[in-house]
Protein backbone atom coordinates (compact mmCIF):
# COMPACT_ATOMS: atom_id res chain seq x y z
CA UNK A 1 0.00 0.00 0.00
CA UNK A 2 1.52 3.27 -1.09
CA UNK A 3 1.06 6.52 0.82
CA UNK A 4 -1.91 8.59 -0.29
CA UNK A 5 0.30 11.51 -1.29
CA UNK A 6 2.76 9.59 -3.47
CA UNK A 7 0.88 10.57 -6.60
CA UNK A 8 1.51 14.24 -5.79
CA UNK A 9 5.27 13.69 -5.88
CA UNK A 10 4.89 11.61 -9.02
CA UNK A 11 2.91 14.40 -10.69
CA UNK A 12 5.38 17.09 -9.63
CA UNK A 13 8.25 14.97 -10.95
CA UNK A 14 6.79 13.82 -14.25
CA UNK A 15 4.32 16.39 -15.57
CA UNK A 16 5.56 19.50 -17.40
CA UNK A 17 6.08 22.42 -15.04
CA UNK A 18 3.40 24.52 -16.69
CA UNK A 19 0.74 23.96 -14.03
CA UNK A 20 0.33 24.27 -10.29
CA UNK A 21 -0.17 21.32 -7.97
CA UNK A 22 -3.43 19.43 -8.64
CA UNK A 23 -6.28 19.95 -6.17
CA UNK A 24 -7.10 16.26 -6.00
CA UNK A 25 -6.82 13.11 -8.09
CA UNK A 26 -10.26 12.43 -9.48
CA UNK A 27 -11.52 8.95 -10.26
CA UNK A 28 -15.08 9.21 -11.51
CA UNK A 29 -18.09 11.46 -11.88
CA UNK A 30 -21.84 11.36 -12.13
CA UNK A 31 -24.04 14.35 -12.84
CA UNK A 32 -22.71 17.37 -10.96
CA UNK A 33 -20.59 15.20 -8.65
CA UNK A 34 -17.04 13.84 -8.82
CA UNK A 35 -15.16 11.48 -6.51
CA UNK A 36 -11.46 11.49 -5.74
CA UNK A 37 -9.20 8.50 -5.18
CA UNK A 38 -9.99 8.50 -1.46
CA UNK A 39 -13.73 8.35 -2.08
CA UNK A 40 -14.37 11.98 -1.14
CA UNK A 41 -17.29 13.45 -3.07
CA UNK A 42 -17.24 16.98 -4.49
CA UNK A 43 -20.01 19.06 -6.02
CA UNK A 44 -18.48 20.16 -9.32
CA UNK A 45 -19.53 23.76 -9.93
CA UNK A 46 -16.67 24.35 -12.37
CA UNK A 47 -17.58 21.53 -14.80
CA UNK A 48 -14.08 21.21 -16.24
CA UNK A 49 -14.11 24.99 -16.84
CA UNK A 50 -17.47 25.27 -18.56
CA UNK A 51 -16.90 22.06 -20.53
CA UNK A 52 -19.12 19.36 -19.00
CA UNK A 53 -22.41 20.91 -20.13
CA UNK A 54 -24.38 17.74 -19.29
CA UNK A 55 -22.36 17.00 -16.15
CA UNK A 56 -20.33 13.82 -15.80
CA UNK A 57 -21.12 10.44 -17.38
CA UNK A 58 -24.46 11.64 -18.76
CA UNK A 59 -26.18 8.70 -20.53
CA UNK A 60 -26.49 10.72 -23.77
CA UNK A 61 -22.74 11.42 -23.76
CA UNK A 62 -21.82 7.85 -22.87
CA UNK A 63 -24.10 6.40 -25.53
CA UNK A 64 -22.81 8.80 -28.22
CA UNK A 65 -19.14 8.04 -27.47
CA UNK A 66 -19.75 4.29 -27.40
CA UNK A 67 -21.93 4.13 -30.49
CA UNK A 68 -19.67 6.28 -32.66
CA UNK A 69 -16.46 4.64 -31.40
CA UNK A 70 -17.97 1.29 -32.40
CA UNK A 71 -18.96 2.66 -35.82
CA UNK A 72 -16.31 5.05 -37.19
CA UNK A 73 -14.02 7.20 -35.05
CA UNK A 74 -11.68 8.86 -37.52
CA UNK A 75 -11.28 9.09 -41.27
CA UNK A 76 -9.06 12.12 -42.24
CA UNK A 77 -10.35 15.10 -44.12
CA UNK A 78 -10.16 13.34 -47.45
CA UNK A 79 -13.60 12.01 -46.55
CA UNK A 80 -16.96 13.33 -45.43
CA UNK A 81 -18.98 11.79 -42.62
CA UNK A 82 -22.59 12.31 -41.67
CA UNK A 83 -22.01 13.49 -38.04
CA UNK A 84 -19.56 16.18 -39.19
CA UNK A 85 -22.00 17.70 -41.65
CA UNK A 86 -24.93 17.42 -39.24
CA UNK A 87 -22.98 19.28 -36.55
CA UNK A 88 -22.01 21.98 -39.05
CA UNK A 89 -25.69 22.41 -39.96
CA UNK A 90 -26.67 22.55 -36.30
CA UNK A 91 -24.05 25.18 -35.46
CA UNK A 92 -25.02 27.43 -38.37
CA UNK A 93 -28.69 27.11 -37.37
CA UNK A 94 -28.18 27.77 -33.64
CA UNK A 95 -25.78 30.67 -34.23
CA UNK A 96 -27.99 32.38 -36.80
CA UNK A 97 -25.24 32.13 -39.44
CA UNK A 98 -27.93 30.58 -41.61
CA UNK A 99 -27.58 29.41 -45.16
CA UNK A 100 -24.45 31.46 -45.92
CA UNK A 101 -22.77 30.01 -42.83
CA UNK A 102 -19.75 27.72 -43.03
CA UNK A 103 -17.90 25.75 -40.36
CA UNK A 104 -14.30 24.66 -39.86
CA UNK A 105 -13.55 22.11 -37.14
CA UNK A 106 -10.47 21.79 -34.95
CA UNK A 107 -9.90 20.19 -31.56
CA UNK A 108 -9.70 23.01 -29.03
CA UNK A 109 -10.43 26.64 -28.34
CA UNK A 110 -6.94 27.83 -29.16
CA UNK A 111 -7.11 26.12 -32.54
CA UNK A 112 -10.48 27.70 -33.24
CA UNK A 113 -8.97 31.12 -32.50
CA UNK A 114 -5.92 30.35 -34.66
CA UNK A 115 -8.34 29.72 -37.50
CA UNK A 116 -10.14 32.98 -36.69
CA UNK A 117 -6.83 34.87 -36.69
CA UNK A 118 -5.99 33.42 -40.11
CA UNK A 119 -9.48 34.38 -41.29
CA UNK A 120 -8.76 37.96 -40.16
CA UNK A 121 -5.53 37.95 -42.20
CA UNK A 122 -7.58 36.93 -45.23
CA UNK A 123 -9.71 40.07 -44.83
CA UNK A 124 -6.78 42.16 -46.04
CA UNK A 125 -8.23 44.19 -48.93
CA UNK A 126 -5.13 43.66 -51.02
CA UNK A 127 -2.74 44.40 -48.16
CA UNK A 128 -4.46 47.54 -46.84
CA UNK A 129 -5.77 45.90 -43.67
CA UNK A 130 -2.97 44.94 -41.35
CA UNK A 131 -4.39 45.43 -37.86
CA UNK A 132 -6.36 43.19 -35.53
CA UNK A 133 -8.02 44.66 -32.46
CA UNK A 134 -8.52 42.70 -29.24
CA UNK A 135 -9.24 43.65 -25.64
CA UNK A 136 -7.04 44.18 -22.61
CA UNK A 137 -7.39 41.20 -20.22
CA UNK A 138 -8.88 39.02 -22.97
CA UNK A 139 -8.08 35.31 -23.02
CA UNK A 140 -8.06 33.54 -26.37
CA UNK A 141 -5.69 30.61 -25.82
CA UNK A 142 -2.04 29.56 -25.46
CA UNK A 143 -0.79 28.84 -28.98
CA UNK A 144 1.37 31.58 -30.52
CA UNK A 145 -1.47 33.02 -32.60
CA UNK A 146 -4.15 32.83 -29.93
CA UNK A 147 -1.62 34.13 -27.40
CA UNK A 148 -1.00 37.13 -29.68
CA UNK A 149 -4.74 37.83 -29.34
CA UNK A 150 -4.65 37.29 -25.56
CA UNK A 151 -4.39 40.53 -23.60
CA UNK A 152 -2.71 39.19 -20.46
CA UNK A 153 0.97 40.21 -20.18
CA UNK A 154 1.68 37.49 -17.60
CA UNK A 155 0.83 34.81 -20.18
CA UNK A 156 2.72 36.52 -23.03
CA UNK A 157 5.93 37.26 -21.16
CA UNK A 158 8.76 34.99 -22.22
CA UNK A 159 7.20 34.08 -25.58
CA UNK A 160 7.77 37.15 -27.69
CA UNK A 161 7.97 37.85 -30.56
CA UNK A 162 4.36 36.82 -31.16
CA UNK A 163 2.52 37.22 -34.48
CA UNK A 164 2.21 40.97 -35.01
CA UNK A 165 -0.36 43.59 -35.79
CA UNK A 166 -2.55 43.04 -32.71
CA UNK A 167 -3.56 46.01 -30.55
CA UNK A 168 -5.24 45.53 -27.17
CA UNK A 169 -7.87 48.11 -26.28
CA UNK A 170 -9.61 48.93 -23.01
CA UNK A 171 -13.22 47.65 -23.13
CA UNK A 172 -14.93 50.99 -23.80
CA UNK A 173 -16.83 52.18 -26.85
CA UNK A 174 -14.67 55.33 -26.85
CA UNK A 175 -11.45 53.30 -27.11
CA UNK A 176 -12.95 51.27 -29.95
CA UNK A 177 -14.10 54.37 -31.83
CA UNK A 178 -10.64 55.90 -31.49
CA UNK A 179 -8.86 52.76 -32.72
CA UNK A 180 -11.17 51.81 -35.60
CA UNK A 181 -10.33 52.76 -39.17
CA UNK A 182 -10.05 51.11 -42.58
CA UNK A 183 -6.74 49.44 -41.69
CA UNK A 184 -8.50 47.12 -39.23
CA UNK A 185 -9.05 43.57 -40.49
CA UNK A 186 -10.94 42.31 -37.44
CA UNK A 187 -12.02 42.91 -33.88
CA UNK A 188 -12.03 39.79 -31.72
CA UNK A 189 -13.62 39.75 -28.29
CA UNK A 190 -15.20 37.62 -25.59
CA UNK A 191 -18.78 38.72 -24.84
CA UNK A 192 -18.01 37.99 -21.17
CA UNK A 193 -14.33 37.75 -20.22
CA UNK A 194 -14.33 34.44 -18.38
CA UNK A 195 -10.67 33.95 -17.51
CA UNK A 196 -10.31 37.60 -16.51
CA UNK A 197 -12.93 37.04 -13.80
CA UNK A 198 -16.31 36.89 -15.55
CA UNK A 199 -16.17 40.54 -16.63
CA UNK A 200 -19.07 41.76 -18.72
CA UNK A 201 -18.70 44.27 -21.54
CA UNK A 202 -20.31 47.66 -20.91
CA UNK A 203 -23.97 47.89 -22.00
CA UNK A 204 -24.23 48.69 -25.71
CA UNK A 205 -20.64 47.64 -26.45
CA UNK A 206 -21.45 44.72 -28.75
CA UNK A 207 -23.99 46.79 -30.67
CA UNK A 208 -21.43 49.58 -31.12
CA UNK A 209 -18.76 47.05 -32.11
CA UNK A 210 -21.10 45.62 -34.75
CA UNK A 211 -21.82 49.07 -36.16
CA UNK A 212 -18.19 50.24 -36.19
CA UNK A 213 -16.77 47.07 -37.71
CA UNK A 214 -19.44 47.05 -40.41
CA UNK A 215 -18.79 50.70 -41.26
CA UNK A 216 -15.05 50.08 -41.67
CA UNK A 217 -15.17 46.68 -43.36
CA UNK A 218 -13.59 44.86 -40.41
CA UNK A 219 -14.73 41.44 -39.22
CA UNK A 220 -16.44 41.15 -35.84
CA UNK A 221 -15.26 37.85 -34.39
CA UNK A 222 -16.85 36.71 -31.12
CA UNK A 223 -15.00 34.15 -29.01
CA UNK A 224 -17.86 32.04 -27.62
CA UNK A 225 -15.58 29.28 -26.36
CA UNK A 226 -16.55 29.76 -22.70
CA UNK A 227 -19.90 31.54 -23.15
CA UNK A 228 -21.40 29.34 -25.90
CA UNK A 229 -23.44 26.12 -25.87
CA UNK A 230 -26.22 27.76 -23.86
CA UNK A 231 -24.19 28.60 -20.78
CA UNK A 232 -25.31 32.22 -20.46
CA UNK A 233 -29.01 31.50 -21.07
CA UNK A 234 -28.83 32.01 -24.86
CA UNK A 235 -27.15 29.61 -27.25
CA UNK A 236 -24.42 32.20 -27.73
CA UNK A 237 -23.85 35.28 -25.60
CA UNK A 238 -23.91 37.79 -28.50
CA UNK A 239 -27.56 36.81 -28.95
CA UNK A 240 -28.40 38.74 -25.75
CA UNK A 241 -27.39 41.87 -27.70
CA UNK A 242 -29.45 40.95 -30.77
CA UNK A 243 -26.51 41.30 -33.17
CA UNK A 244 -24.98 38.93 -35.73
CA UNK A 245 -21.16 38.77 -35.89
CA UNK A 246 -19.07 37.77 -38.93
CA UNK A 247 -17.57 34.78 -37.17
CA UNK A 248 -17.62 32.97 -33.85
CA UNK A 249 -15.29 30.47 -32.27
CA UNK A 250 -16.62 27.58 -30.21
CA UNK A 251 -15.10 24.78 -28.11
CA UNK A 252 -15.39 23.81 -24.41
CA UNK A 253 -19.12 23.21 -23.72
CA UNK A 254 -20.19 22.16 -27.23
CA UNK A 255 -18.36 18.86 -26.77
CA UNK A 256 -19.46 18.20 -23.20
CA UNK A 257 -16.04 16.63 -22.56
CA UNK A 258 -14.92 15.40 -25.99
CA UNK A 259 -12.17 17.66 -27.39
CA UNK A 260 -13.55 19.80 -30.21
CA UNK A 261 -13.32 23.38 -31.43
CA UNK A 262 -14.74 25.22 -34.38
CA UNK A 263 -14.94 28.40 -36.38
CA UNK A 264 -18.36 29.40 -37.71
CA UNK A 265 -18.49 32.12 -40.35
CA UNK A 266 -21.44 34.29 -41.34
CA UNK A 267 -22.18 35.99 -44.67
CA UNK A 268 -19.22 37.10 -46.79
CA UNK A 269 -16.72 35.93 -44.14
CA UNK A 270 -17.62 32.44 -45.36
CA UNK A 271 -15.84 33.20 -48.66
CA UNK A 272 -12.46 34.27 -47.23
CA UNK A 273 -10.70 30.91 -47.02
CA UNK A 274 -9.95 28.95 -50.15
CA UNK A 275 -8.78 25.40 -50.77
CA UNK A 276 -5.59 24.43 -48.97
CA UNK A 277 -5.41 27.44 -46.67
CA UNK A 278 -6.17 25.69 -43.38
CA UNK A 279 -6.52 22.19 -42.01
CA UNK A 280 -6.33 19.75 -39.12
CA UNK A 281 -5.90 15.99 -39.03
CA UNK A 282 -8.29 15.31 -36.16
CA UNK A 283 -10.56 18.31 -36.74
CA UNK A 284 -14.14 17.33 -37.54
CA UNK A 285 -13.62 13.62 -36.98
CA UNK A 286 -16.85 11.65 -36.65
CA UNK A 287 -16.21 10.68 -33.02
CA UNK A 288 -15.94 14.27 -31.77
CA UNK A 289 -18.64 15.68 -34.03
CA UNK A 290 -21.13 12.94 -33.31
CA UNK A 291 -20.67 13.40 -29.54
CA UNK A 292 -20.94 17.21 -29.84
CA UNK A 293 -24.07 16.73 -31.94
CA UNK A 294 -25.61 14.52 -29.26
CA UNK A 295 -24.64 16.98 -26.50
CA UNK A 296 -26.18 19.94 -28.35
CA UNK A 297 -29.26 17.85 -29.18
CA UNK A 298 -29.74 17.10 -25.47
CA UNK A 299 -29.20 20.78 -24.53
CA UNK A 300 -31.85 21.68 -27.10
CA UNK A 301 -34.32 18.88 -26.31
CA UNK A 302 -34.17 19.28 -22.52
CA UNK A 303 -34.23 23.11 -22.75
CA UNK A 304 -30.98 23.40 -20.85
CA UNK A 305 -30.49 26.89 -22.32
CA UNK A 306 -33.65 27.95 -20.48
CA UNK A 307 -32.47 26.02 -17.43
CA UNK A 308 -29.16 27.93 -17.52
CA UNK A 309 -31.06 31.22 -17.55
CA UNK A 310 -33.41 30.25 -14.69
CA UNK A 311 -30.86 28.43 -12.54
CA UNK A 312 -28.43 31.27 -13.09
CA UNK A 313 -30.82 33.71 -11.46
CA UNK A 314 -31.39 31.29 -8.57
CA UNK A 315 -27.66 30.70 -8.18
CA UNK A 316 -27.10 34.42 -7.90
CA UNK A 317 -29.91 34.65 -5.31
CA UNK A 318 -28.35 31.78 -3.34
CA UNK A 319 -24.98 33.56 -3.22
CA UNK A 320 -26.55 36.86 -2.21
CA UNK A 321 -28.78 35.01 0.30
CA UNK A 322 -25.70 33.86 2.20
CA UNK A 323 -25.28 37.46 3.37
CA UNK A 324 -21.52 36.98 3.64
CA UNK A 325 -19.52 40.16 4.27
CA UNK A 326 -16.92 38.66 1.89
CA UNK A 327 -19.28 38.88 -1.10
CA UNK A 328 -19.03 42.31 -2.75
CA UNK A 329 -21.19 41.50 -5.78
CA UNK A 330 -22.16 38.91 -8.38
CA UNK A 331 -21.36 39.24 -12.09
CA UNK A 332 -22.03 37.24 -15.22
CA UNK A 333 -25.02 35.74 -16.93
CA UNK A 334 -26.85 32.42 -16.75
CA UNK A 335 -24.56 29.75 -15.38
CA UNK A 336 -21.34 31.69 -15.92
CA UNK A 337 -21.06 33.54 -12.63
CA UNK A 338 -18.31 35.59 -11.02
CA UNK A 339 -18.53 36.27 -7.31
CA UNK A 340 -16.61 39.47 -6.54
CA UNK A 341 -14.97 39.25 -3.13
CA UNK A 342 -14.44 42.20 -0.80
CA UNK A 343 -10.87 40.99 -0.11
CA UNK A 344 -8.22 39.40 -2.37
CA UNK A 345 -8.78 35.94 -0.85
CA UNK A 346 -10.20 33.98 -3.79
CA UNK A 347 -7.45 31.34 -3.47
CA UNK A 348 -8.38 30.80 0.19
CA UNK A 349 -12.08 30.61 -0.64
CA UNK A 350 -11.59 28.01 -3.40
CA UNK A 351 -9.35 25.96 -1.06
CA UNK A 352 -11.95 26.19 1.73
CA UNK A 353 -14.61 25.16 -0.81
CA UNK A 354 -12.59 22.00 -1.62
CA UNK A 355 -12.48 21.29 2.12
CA UNK A 356 -16.27 21.68 2.14
CA UNK A 357 -16.62 19.33 -0.86
CA UNK A 358 -17.24 21.98 -3.51
CA UNK A 359 -15.27 22.74 -6.69
CA UNK A 360 -15.23 26.40 -7.72
CA UNK A 361 -12.38 28.41 -9.20
CA UNK A 362 -10.37 31.47 -8.23
CA UNK A 363 -10.36 33.27 -11.61
CA UNK A 364 -8.24 36.01 -10.06
CA UNK A 365 -7.31 37.19 -6.53
CA UNK A 366 -10.75 38.61 -5.81
CA UNK A 367 -13.14 36.62 -8.02
CA UNK A 368 -14.63 33.16 -7.64
CA UNK A 369 -15.80 31.73 -10.96
CA UNK A 370 -18.76 29.35 -10.92
CA UNK A 371 -19.76 27.37 -14.02
CA UNK A 372 -21.77 24.27 -13.10
CA UNK A 373 -23.24 21.74 -15.54
CA UNK A 374 -26.30 23.16 -17.35
CA UNK A 375 -28.34 20.29 -15.89
CA UNK A 376 -28.39 21.46 -12.26
CA UNK A 377 -31.62 21.69 -10.27
CA UNK A 378 -32.82 22.52 -6.76
CA UNK A 379 -30.88 19.70 -5.08
CA UNK A 380 -27.55 20.89 -6.49
CA UNK A 381 -28.33 24.51 -5.62
CA UNK A 382 -29.13 23.50 -2.01
CA UNK A 383 -25.85 21.60 -1.73
CA UNK A 384 -23.98 24.49 -3.33
CA UNK A 385 -25.40 27.09 -1.00
CA UNK A 386 -24.57 25.03 2.07
CA UNK A 387 -21.00 24.26 0.97
CA UNK A 388 -20.18 27.70 -0.42
CA UNK A 389 -21.58 29.27 2.75
CA UNK A 390 -19.27 27.14 4.87
CA UNK A 391 -16.26 28.02 2.70
CA UNK A 392 -16.94 31.76 2.89
CA UNK A 393 -17.48 31.57 6.66
CA UNK A 394 -14.25 29.63 7.16
CA UNK A 395 -12.27 32.28 5.30
CA UNK A 396 -14.12 35.22 6.91
CA UNK A 397 -13.19 33.79 10.34
CA UNK A 398 -9.48 34.08 9.52
CA UNK A 399 -9.62 37.74 8.46
C1 LIG B 1 -10.71 28.27 -22.72
C2 LIG B 1 -10.75 29.41 -23.68
C3 LIG B 1 -9.93 29.43 -24.82
C4 LIG B 1 -8.90 28.37 -25.10
O1 LIG B 1 -9.46 27.13 -25.27
P1 LIG B 1 -8.52 25.81 -25.19
O2 LIG B 1 -9.45 24.70 -25.56
O3 LIG B 1 -7.99 25.74 -23.81
O4 LIG B 1 -7.44 25.99 -26.18
C5 LIG B 1 -10.07 30.49 -25.69
N1 LIG B 1 -10.95 31.48 -25.46
C6 LIG B 1 -11.75 31.49 -24.37
C7 LIG B 1 -12.72 32.60 -24.17
C8 LIG B 1 -11.67 30.46 -23.44
O5 LIG B 1 -12.43 30.48 -22.34
Q: What class, by secondary structure content?
A: alpha/beta
Determine Rg (CA atoms, Å): 21 Å
Query: Which hetero compounds are present in the coordinates?
Result: pyridoxal-5'-phosphate
The helical percent reads: 25-40%
What is the fold-level CATH name, i.e. the topology of the largest domain?
A: Aspartate Aminotransferase, domain 2
CATH architecture of the largest domain: 3-Layer(aba) Sandwich
Give the overall silhouette.
globular
Care to count the β-strands? 17
Number of spatially distinct domains: 2
Q: Beta-strand percentage?
A: 15-25%
Average pLDDT rating: 97
Question: Which consecutive residue ranges, at least 5 long each, have pLDDT under 50?
Answer: none
For the record, the CATH class of the largest domain is Alpha Beta
- The helix count comes to 13
> What is the rounded distance between the termini?
40 Å
Order of helices and strands: HEEEHHHEHEHHEHEEEHEEEHHEEHEEEH
Spell out the CATH superfamily of the largest domain. Type I PLP-dependent aspartate aminotransferase-like (Major domain)
Biggest β-sheet: count, sense, barrel? 7 strands, mixed
Features:
399 residues; alpha/beta; Aspartate Aminotransferase, domain 1; Aspartate Aminotransferase, domain 2; 2 domains; 7-stranded mixed sheet; 4-stranded mixed sheet; 13 helices; binds pyridoxal-5'-phosphate
Describe this structure in words.
The protein has 399 residues and is an alpha/beta fold. It has two domains: 10-58 and 303-396, Aspartate Aminotransferase, domain 1; 62-301, Type I PLP-dependent aspartate aminotransferase-like (Major domain) (Aspartate Aminotransferase, domain 2, 3-Layer(aba) Sandwich), CATH 3.40.640.10. Helix content is 37%, strand content 19%. The protein is built from 13 helices and 17 strands. It has helices at 6-14, 47-50, 59-69, 82-95, 109-122, 144-149, 153-156, 173-179, 205-216, 286-301, 304-321, 346-355, 378-398; strands at residues 26-30, 33-36, 41-44, 102-106, 131-135, 166-169, 184-189, 192-193, 199-200, 219-223, 247-250, 261-265, 327-333, 336-341, 358-359, 361-364, 367-370. The strands form four sheets. It has a seven-stranded mixed beta sheet with strand order 4-12-11-10-7-5-6, sandwiched between helices. The chain has a four-stranded mixed beta sheet with strand order 1-2-3-15. Strand 2 (33-36) and strand 3 (41-44) form a beta hairpin. The model has no long low-confidence stretch (mean pLDDT 97). Keywords: Amino-acid biosynthesis, Aminotransferase, Arginine biosynthesis, Cytoplasm, Pyridoxal phosphate, Transferase. InterPro entries: AcOrn/SuccOrn_fam (IPR004636), Aminotrans_3 (IPR005814), Aminotrans_3_PPA_site (IPR049704), Class-III_PLP-dep_AT (IPR050103), PyrdxlP-dep_Trfase (IPR015424), PyrdxlP-dep_Trfase_major (IPR015421), PyrdxlP-dep_Trfase_small (IPR015422). Belongs to the class-III pyridoxal-phosphate-dependent aminotransferase family. ArgD subfamily.
